[in-house]
């Protein structure tokens, strides 16, 4: 539960170190820090972000998530996300194919709905969210987007794109699938449950993920490795990662890496696990393809990977709908639909 004292992350499990990027320094244009961000984004695609200034907004948003997930299930199910590829809403779900029922529960709030409130753009939400849409959800969305735009503008520059290209593809006032997600998973009681994956291997759907978590459980499989390693949560440090769209726009220069969530290790397993994410995703109408017309650096990158397809033929909206639709149990037709939901088509053995 947010706010309770949690046992420390254990020292006897395999972890993968991440570079630490200081948001204040990258915002101020510090060359060395910007190079560190670039190194992280083009190798593993994950990094810690400190001094991001969003702690208060994140804490308040965790409270909204806790209030919402404390509502009776029948109430939350009125806002359930449905089977048609819609990501916003609430969900209690099974996302482990053919094994166990996942008991991760989450609530997603659309950036468009949060910023337009009380006007409804996509969906309506439970009362606990409406009550704090203007004073908590929208400030968290704005803070997360401020951070995102600083990072996107740095990538824009490094990729040799005309000024403002990436920011304009993620414009705050245009419709997109950007969303806040607050997730809860229950304490893990027995040995069998310790073995199970809570959120199966996947890459993220959008452009940039800004993640706040308290307990361990997030794992990455770094390129060239065949084993999972935990990412150790560090208080006051968010975890950022590159997602599919940005990887495609950049011709694969930016890395969207596979990750998953397993029960928290050691004594942490006995606690509810909460996580809070802001997913920045491109404007819905943007086609996911390498921006070869706009940057010779991206042209070169694409030429060097002739076996990879950077022309998805999908808009951002279609891409997301495919992923979300195929992760819904009612739409599952077999292994292909499962694979189509994960973004792991090229690493099919990672579970
Ligand atoms: O809860 C976490 O630590 C990560 C969640 C995640 O990977 C996701 O929601 O895409
Ligand atoms: Fe993820």
What does this structure look like?
Belongs to the iron/ascorbate-dependent oxidoreductase family. InterPro entries: DIOX_N (IPR026992), IPNS-like_FE2OG_OXY (IPR044861), IPNS-like_sf (IPR027443), Iron_ascorbate_oxido_reductase (IPR050231), Oxoglu/Fe-dep_dioxygenase_dom (IPR005123). Keywords: Iron, Metal-binding, Oxidoreductase. There is one protein chain. Helix 3 packs across helix 6 and helix 11 packs across helix 12. This protein starts with 19 loop residues before the first strand and ends in a 9-residue tail after the last helix. It has 351 residues and is an alpha+beta fold. It has twelve helices and 14 strands. The longest helix has 32 residues. It has an eight-stranded mixed beta sheet. The protein has a four-stranded antiparallel beta sheet with strand order 6-11-8-9, with no helix packed on it. Strands 13-14 form a two-stranded antiparallel sheet. The site of 2-oxoglutaric acid has 11 residues, from strand 5, strand 7, strand 11 and strand 12.
Give the key terms.
binds 2-oxoglutaric acid; alpha+beta; Fe2OG dioxygenase domain-containing protein; Jelly Rolls; four-stranded antiparallel sheet; disordered C terminus; binds fe (ii) ion; IPNS-like_sf; Iron_ascorbate_oxido_reductase; globular; oxidoreductase activity
């Amino acid at each position: 539960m947010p706010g309770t004292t949690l046992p420390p992350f254990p020292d006897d499990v395999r972890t993968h170190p991440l570079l630490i990027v200081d948001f204040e320094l990258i915002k101020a244009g510090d060359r060395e820090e910007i190079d560190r961000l670039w190194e992280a984004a083009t190798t593993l695609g994950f990094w810690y972000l400190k001094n991001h200034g969003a702690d208060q907004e994140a804490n308040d948003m965790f409270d909204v998530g806790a209030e919402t997930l404390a509502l009776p299930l029948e109430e939350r199910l009125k806002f359930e996300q449905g089977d048609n590829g819609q990501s916003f809403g609430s969900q209690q779900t099974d996302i482990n194919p053919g094994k166990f029922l996942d008991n991760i529960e989450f609530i997603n709030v659309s950036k468009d709905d949060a910023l337009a409130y009380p006007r409804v753009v996509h969906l309506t939400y439970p009362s606990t969210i409406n009550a704090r849409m203007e004073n908590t959800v929208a400030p968290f969305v704005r803070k997360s987007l401020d951070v995102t735009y600083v990072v996107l503008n740095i990538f824009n520059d490094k990729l040799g794109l005309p000024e403002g290209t990436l920011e304009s593809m993620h414009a705050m006032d245009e419709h997109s699938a950007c969303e806040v997600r607050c997730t809860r998973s229950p304490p893990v009681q027995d040995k069998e449950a310790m073995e199970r994956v809570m959120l199966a291997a996947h890459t993220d759907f959008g452009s940039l993920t800004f993640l706040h978590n308290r307990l361990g459980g997030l794992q990455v499989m770094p390129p060239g490795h065949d084993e999972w390693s935990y990412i150790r949560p560090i208080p006051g440090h968010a975890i950022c990662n590159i997602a599919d769209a940005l990887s495609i726009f950049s011709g694969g220069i930016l890395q969207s890496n596979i990750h998953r969530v397993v029960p928290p290790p050691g004594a942490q397993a006995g606690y509810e696990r909460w996580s809070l994410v802001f997913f920045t995703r491109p404007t819905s109408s943007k086609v996911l393809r390498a921006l070869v017309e706009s940057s010779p650096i991206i042209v070169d990158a694409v030429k060097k990977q002739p076996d990879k397809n950077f022309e998805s033929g999908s808009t951002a909206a279609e891409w997301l709908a495919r992923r979300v639709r195929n992760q819904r149990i009612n739409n599952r037709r077999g292994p292909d639909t499962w694979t189509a939901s994960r973004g792991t088509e090229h690493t099919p053995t990672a579970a």
